TrEMBL record:
Name the record gives this protein: Spore germination protein KB
Keyword annotations: Germination, Membrane, Transmembrane, Transmembrane helix, Transport
Record membrane topology: Multi-pass membrane protein
Residues passing through the membrane, by range: 12-34, 40-58, 84-105, 117-137, 144-163, 183-207, 219-240, 270-292, 304-321, 333-355
Subcellular location: Membrane
GO biological process terms, semicolon-separated: spore germination
GO CC annotations, alphabetized: membrane
UniProt keyword Transmembrane present: yes
Record-stated family: Belongs to the amino acid-polyamine-organocation (APC) superfamily. Spore germination protein (SGP) (TC 2.A.3.9) family.
Amino acid sequence: MEKGKISSLQMAFMMYPTIVATAIIGVPSITAKYAKTDLWLSPIFAALIGYLTVYIAYKLHQLFPKQTVIQFTEKIIGRIPGKIFGFLLLFFYIQNTGLIVRGYAEFVVGSFLVRTPISVIMTSMVLLCAFIVRGGIEVLGRAAELFVPVFIFPLCILILLLIPDLEFKNIFPVLANGIMPPIKGSIVPGGWFSEFFLIIFLLPFLADMKNGMKSGMKSVFAVMMTLIVVNLTVLFVLGATTSSKLYPLMNVSRYISVADFFEHVESAAMAVWIVGAFVKISVFYYASALGTAQWLNLSDYRPVVWPIGILIVIFSLWSLPNSVDVSRNDINVFPLQSILMQTIIPLLLLVIAVVRKRNRKGAETSRMD
């Protein structure tokens, strides 16, 4: 099925932009709606879901070392229920990949290429990702290793250039309405953090398995710190108006002006978005293709790459009519759906698997006695 191997570091590089790429664009305004000036605290609470999800995925992998969730679910809850859950999970991933592509295209068309048909933007990205996915997990791992520095560098430069425009007083008052607003604000980014469950499709191919959990946890921490810094930067620049902006990071990038010469660096924000979106879509695409092949009991996942790509484009075109509905879906539907499919149900699977394993051990012990 997949003969390639990746390192735990490459897995971390794959997961970091998979979460951050879309989160840095929308999370500041979404968390500000609930947490106001405490929006920087929300990623801390949201990261708890990420840590839990990585722990669940790794423990499931330890119980079924060379299998993904599509394969071992049938062993935990039976063949038919396992097939049903596998189908629902794959549908979720394929549909979600389409929505990610749609969000990416809405951002590019709405902010930059206003006269370009959105279908062209979406199809070209899916086509590019399809070639990477067909190349296998090693190609995907190396691409992530190459692009993550390209993703991080413009983001760091963007934040450094904004230092003269930062109003640190915007952070006050801290916890004026208690701890609940930041917790409520953490639900939506918690949906993004639950995407760390995707490592269940990567863990079977790690060359250094003992570092799998550590790399996953480090990646969660890196994502959390990035979102805290981005949220604080946006808060310090935009203040109370943060919640009214659709793409706050784009808005703050327009404040940059160095000696009246170095201005209009929105292209740097777009570069961050495109590079990160490319890695994110590729990881989701790979998990969808690999999982579909395993669900169909195929010997190779590559024959399903192009059909899955067509489905992704269809979902991206037909799922939601415009950017307002994309944003509404990100706030109202995606978080609960994501946490349910990638954290809560896998936790139940882990509990069932552990209980059954203990029951088997107990039965074997009593038989020996």
